[in-house]
Amino acid sequence: MASHNEVGAASTGAPQPAPRARLSKPVFVPAVIVIVAALSFATWFGARYGAEAGAAFTALRDAIGTNVGWWYIVVVTAMLAFCLWAALSKVGNIRLGRDDERPEFSSYSWFAMLFSAGMGIGLVFSGVSEPLTHLYNPPAVADVEAGTEQAGRAAIGQAMFHWGLHAWGIYAIVGLGLAYMTFRRGRPLSIRWLLEPIFGRKLIESWVGHVIDVVAIVGTVFGVATSLGMGVLQVQAGLSYQGWFEPSGTLLTVLVLGITALGTISVVTGLHKGLRWLSNANMTLAALLAVVVLLLGPTVFLLRSLVQNFGEYLQTVPQLAFVTGAGAGDTWTLDWTLFNQAWFLSWAPFVGMFIARISRGRTIREFVLGALLAPTLVSLVWFTVFGTTAVTRQLTDGGLVGEDGAVDQNTALFLLFGELPVSEGLVTVLSVVAIVVITLFFVTSADSCSLVVDVLSHNGRSETPWFTRVFWAVLVGTAGALLLMAGGRAALTVLQVSSLAGAAPLSIVYVLAMVALWRMFRLEVATMPRYVRIRSHATPSALVAAARENTDTERDMARSLRDTLRARNGDGRGGLKRVSATLGGLETGPSASPAGTVIADDTILAVHEVPAHATTVDPRTGAIGLGDATHDDPTAGEVFDTPEFTDSAVGAEHHSQELLERCTDVQDRERDDERAEQRARSH
């Protein structure tokens, strides 16, 4: 099928280049201003309170969590519920692309990329420390005694609650919306277009859309800056654990600058060179690290625990899904659930765009179930290998947790390596590999983040200039460094504050996006044809059963069956023999099948379900008619001169209609010319 661009190229005799991506100043400038202002405030806040900065940032974090946290709990749980509804209802049959389109990547490659998306600095940072923390500081709602085997089993389920379905439900909603609006509806790949069904194209292209993209950029930058800060803290702890460097602000700054420089190099080398190589490298190293710990640890026990941890997780989900910490005597929900969910809300534009990009051509059911289950399985395996090993080692031998039950989140992973039954040399190797994995994970995150926010600042165009991507990579590194220096010893608390604050406006966008998607999905389901088979005769099994029931011997049964087949194939009443999208034009007639064979007389019909209230009844004849059953499409009639629109389902339909109209016009002109010529001859 010739696209709109191809038609234009054919008319000029030369291919037309794609429009150049232009920087959207109404998005770029405000986003940079907001980020700089927030970093300036954090720096001033830390300098203002000096030695008391930790307590001041903690108070600020608690205030945000107390007043906004309940909203995050509701939004995240609603996002997961929306995903399950979309996957398990008729909505799941909708394809993210044209109806005749098939997945761009094979199932194996797609799952592999989802697995890689499921890994990150967060899992490496929390794989050991979080279960150990829950072991000695369980949530009050769990009602388990701290430091016991029961608390240890529950700790894995509690960690999985933060890294499993709820986290990926957030990413799946954003990815689903982007994939649907871009691949199916032909809109630019930008967060603002998720809300077009609510606001309309005019508002989306105005200041309203600019605000939405600014919010997405700011939230993404601070989400990735939080990831950078956590990764750098752990790298510093690893270097200190080996005795190579002493922790200091200078070391943190050098590490941030070094990692940012690597991310910038990856940006310059491009997606298919730098990012692909780094992604393959860090996935291989992370998998190698997990396999080594699995083999050196209690291997059989860990394999048994994998199944048990899955059960613990299933029990934990309903237990913690709606816990907001109200009336609790601890800050567990604020420290863990709210921070993690806010962090994931900030990351959603970044990860969502990635999983949308690799999922073109898949059905919504495939997309949602894959995006939820594959990364959750990765998290389950990771927490089983590292978390269960750490919990078991602590309960039997100790040494991983302080006397007061405190867990050093930065050094917990390296302490676990030291407890494994291996030589000091191998412990050093494992520690170095872990540091490299953490570094590479951030480099790939910084590269992808710079690409995503640059796409948003260029009105959704995927091909953007390299120098603007470099700018965003440097800004993310600067943000991470300033947040770490502003917090001092309370650096992690500052990172929590940035995520909690940055996620607030994004959560509103996601709620509106779900409303918009619900509206569009209802339209899709209402107008989606359902194909049914109509049989005018019984199946072969039913024919044989009927013949056997009415005869006494096998010989009589065979004779009766032959008579039935002869009558069926030769009496001219063979039933409907054609395939049609309507009942009109269907004919019946004698079959061409040889006598004595069972003909395939199925008819395929495309039907649309019509609600009872949309039908009318003629009072004179009793005939049923169709009343006002039209469906309002809030995005109908909009055309975009972009590659995304040309390749989408709506764009393909639009260009097909244009082609049909042109062919019809040509045919009409030829018919008119022929008639004019006939009239001329007659005169």
From TrEMBL:
GO cellular component, one term: plasma membrane
Keywords, in A-Z order: Cell membrane, Membrane, Transmembrane, Transmembrane helix, Transport
Keyword Zinc-finger: no
InterPro entries per record: BCCT_transptr
Pfam families: BCCT
Region (Disordered): 664-683
Molecular-function annotations in GO: transmembrane transporter activity
Coiled-coil ranges per UniProt: none
Annotated membrane topology: Multi-pass membrane protein
Subcellular location: Cell membrane
Keyword Cell membrane: yes
Chain ranges passing through the membrane: 27-49, 69-88, 108-128, 165-183, 204-230, 250-271, 283-303, 338-355, 367-385, 425-445, 466-488, 500-521
Extent of the signal sequence: none
Family classification: Belongs to the BCCT transporter (TC 2.A.15) family.
Protein known as: Choline/glycine/proline betaine transport protein
